Amino acid sequence: VLLHTATANGFQMVTSGAQSKAINDWLIPSVEGRLTGLGGEDLPTVVIVAHYDSFGVAPWLSHGADSNGSGISVLLELARLFSRLYTYRRTHAGYNLLFFASGGGKFNYQGTKRWLEDNLDHTDSSLLQDNVAFVLCLDTLGRGNSLHLHVSKPPKEGTLQHAFLRELETVVGSQFPEVKFSMVHKKINLAEDMLAWEHERFAIRRLPAFTLSHLESHRDSLRNSIMDRRARIDTKALIRNTRIIAEALTRVIYNLTDKGAPADTQIFTDQMQIQQEQLESVMDWLSSQPRAAQLIDKDSTFLNTLEYYMGRYLKDVKQHHVKADKR
C-alpha cells in the first residue's frame, strides 16, 4: 500500500546533499582463494561461491544482512574450517577447494559471469578448466527452519553433486530434524532479463552447480530490501546452516558414507567446532556498512578487509576486477 501510494501520487525523494550524478563507469571487484588437495594436479575441484554485494531502493542504506551477508559469513567460516583440515597430511582431502566472493551479484551476477569467461575462455590453466566436481553457491542462509537446494537440472545418480544432495538429506535428517529440506528444480529462463540464482551463471557454462538458501523462491522481496538488517539474522539458524553445509561437504569429499561412518557422526565438534563469536563478528562487520556494488571500488576498506580475511586461511588469494556492463 505504501509503495502504491508513493508511486501513484508522484512523491519525490528529497535530500539536502549535493546534486546526484549517475555512475556510468565502475569496477566490479571479486576475491578468490583456494585450498589445494593432496595427490597431484588433476584433482577434482569443489567451488564455493557467495556474492558479497547488497541491493535496495537507496544504495547507501542497503546493508544486505541476510542477502547476502549470511552467504559470505558461511563462506568465510567454511574457509577457516577446511583450512585446518587441509593443514595436516592425514586429514588432507583429494579435492581442490576454490572459494569465490563475487561482486555484482545484484547486477545479474556480472562478477561471476566475467570471472567464468576469463577462466574458461582466456587462460590455459585454471581450476575451473578441467575437472569441476560441483559449484555450491550460498545465498540467504541467516534465518528460518528450512533449507532449499535450487537446481537448474536435477543431479544424476552416481555424480558427486548427487552425493552432496544425499549427504545434505542425511545430515539434516539425522542431526537437525527440525529443518525442512528440499530440492527445488527450476529451469533457466533465458528470456528473463535477470537470472534467478547465482548457480545459473555456472549452469549456462555447463558446470554442475546449485544454490543453497532458506528461501523457496528467488522472487522473495527481502533479497532486495533496505529492511534486510542485522536484527533480522537468527544467529542460531546461521550457525546451524553453516554446520549442515560443513558436515555434508566433509562427508562428500572424504567419502565417509561409503567408509561406513554413521549418519549422526559429527565432525565439527570440540576444537573443530564452528566459532559462534567469530561468525557473529563477521556478520556484524558485513551488515554495518552499505555494500551496494556501485559503492565498492578496488580500494575500498571493505574489499581489502575481505581479501585479508580470506588470506588468513586460503592460498593464492587475489582480487579480480572487471568493468560493469553499461547496460
UniProtKB/TrEMBL annotation:
Looking up Pfam families in the UniProt record yields:
Peptidase_M28 (PF04389)
What InterPro entries does this protein map onto? Nicalin, Peptidase_M28
Task: Provide GO CC annotations from the record.
Answer: endoplasmic reticulum membrane
Predominant location of this chain?
endoplasmic reticulum
Signal peptide coordinates: none
Query: Which regions form coiled coils?
Result: none
Compartments it resides in: Endoplasmic reticulum membrane
Domain named Peptidase M28: residues: 44-247
**Any single biological process term in GO:** regulation of signal transduction
Topology in the lipid bilayer is annotated as:
Single-pass membrane protein
Q: Which UniProt keywords apply?
A: Endoplasmic reticulum, Glycoprotein, Membrane, Signal, Transmembrane, Transmembrane helix
What family is reported?
Belongs to the nicastrin family.
Q: What is this protein called?
A: BOS complex subunit NCLN
